[in-house]
Design brief:
Layout lengths: L2 E2 L6 E2 L31 H52 L8 H11 L1 H4 L4 H11 L9 E5 L8 E5 L2 E11 L5 E7 L5 E9 L1 H7 L4 E5 L1 H7 L7 E6 L3 E6 L5
Antiparallel strand pairs: 1-2, 3-5, 3-8, 4-5, 5-6, 6-7, 7-10, 9-10
C-alpha cells in the first residue's frame, strides 16, 4: 500500500527520508515504535537485580559476623565471670577462719594438751600459789575466760605472729592490776603449740580479740579434766612477757 507525503500529497515510497517532490523531511513525522525486548534477562529491573542480591548477601554476611562476634564475647564474658567467681571463692576460703570446736569444753581440753602454762594449773601446789598471786579462788569460774569471737560467735580468732597468720583459740586471765594474761593456741596442730602473753592491756585484747562474751572456767574445772600435755611440746623462745611453746614432733 502506497504512502503519500503529508506536505504535498504526492506518493512516496517506504524508506524515503525526503519527499522527492517537495523536499519535505519525512523522518520528523514518523513515530518511533518502542523496541520490544522479549529477553527478560536484559531488562533494567533484571540487570539491577544482581546488585540488590549482592547487597542482601553483604548484609547477611555482616549480620552473621556480628552475631558470631557477639556470641564470642558472650562466651568470653561468661567464662571470665566464672574465673572471677572462682578466684573470689578461693580468696574467701584462704582468708576464712576455720570453725574449730563448737563445744567450749572441747576447746579448753585441746588447749590444755597444747599449752604448757595452762596445763600446769592442774598441779595442786601451783594452784595455791596462783590463787595467792592473782587473788582468786580455785572455784572462781571467771578465772579462765574462753573468748568468743564477736563476729563469728565461735571461739576462733585470727592472730598474727612474726608475719604468720594463725587462727587460734584465746583464753584470757585477768590479773590484779587490771591487765590480762593470754594463752593463744593455734586451732590446728602447728609447729607453734601455743603462745603465752602476760601484762596485756584490756585495750589490746579488745583490739585484736574483740569479744563481748566468754565461757568461764575455774582452776577446779581444769583439775577435774585431768588432761595430759602432748608430747614434744617445749618452751624454746620468748622473753619476760611472751613465751612460745613449739611442737617438735616433726623433727623426729
Amino acid at each position: 500500500m502506497s504512502k503519500k507525503c503529508p506536505n504535498c500529497g504526492h506518493e512516496i515510497q517506504d524508506g524515503d527520508t525526503f519527499c522527492i517532490h517537495c523536499g519535505y523531511k519525512l523522518a520528523q513525522n514518523q513515530k518511533k515504535e518502542p523496541i520490544k525486548n522479549n529477553d527478560k534477562s536484559g531488562s533494567l529491573k533484571e540487570k539491577r537485580q544482581p546488585k540488590k542480591s549482592m547487597k542482601v548477601l553483604e548484609a547477611s554476611s555482616e549480620n552473621i559476623h556480628k552475631e558470631q562476634t557477639q556470641g564470642f564475647w558472650k562466651k568470653k564474658s561468661f567464662w571470665g565471670l566464672i574465673v572471677v567467681i572462682a578466684i573470689g571463692v578461693l580468696v574467701i576460703k584462704i582468708h576464712a577462719l576455720p570453725k574449730g570446736y563448737s563445744d567450749p569444753t572441747d576447746v579448753i581440753e585441746y588447749c590444755m594438751r597444747r599449752d604448757t602454762t595452762l596445763n600446769m594449773f592442774q598441779n595442786s601446789s601451783l594452784d595455791e600459789e596462783a590463787s595467792e598471786l592473782f587473788g582468786t579462788d580455785d572455784d572462781d569460774t571467771d578465772r579462765f575466760q574462753l573468748l568468743q569471737n564477736e563476729k563469728t560467735k565461735r571461739y576462733v580468732f585470727r592472730y598474727s605472729f612474726h608475719g604468720e597468720s594463725i587462727p587460734s583459740y584465746v583464753i584470757a586471765t585477768e590479773v590484779n592490776n587490771g591487765d590480762y594474761a593470754l594463752e593463744i593456741v593455734p586451732v590446728k596442730k602447728n609447729h607453734i603449740a601455743s603462745i603465752s602473753k602476760t601484762d596485756v592491756s584490756e585495750s589490746y585484747v579488745d583490739k585484736y580479740f574483740p569479744s563481748k562474751k566468754y565461757v568461764g572456767y575455774s582452776i577446779d574445772d581444769l583439775e577435774d579434766m585431768d588432761v595430759k600435755l602432748d608430747k614434744h611440746i617445749h618452751h624454746v623462745s620468748g622473753n619476760d612477757k611472751t613465751l612460745v611453746f613449739y611442737d617438735e614432733s616433726e623433727n623426729e
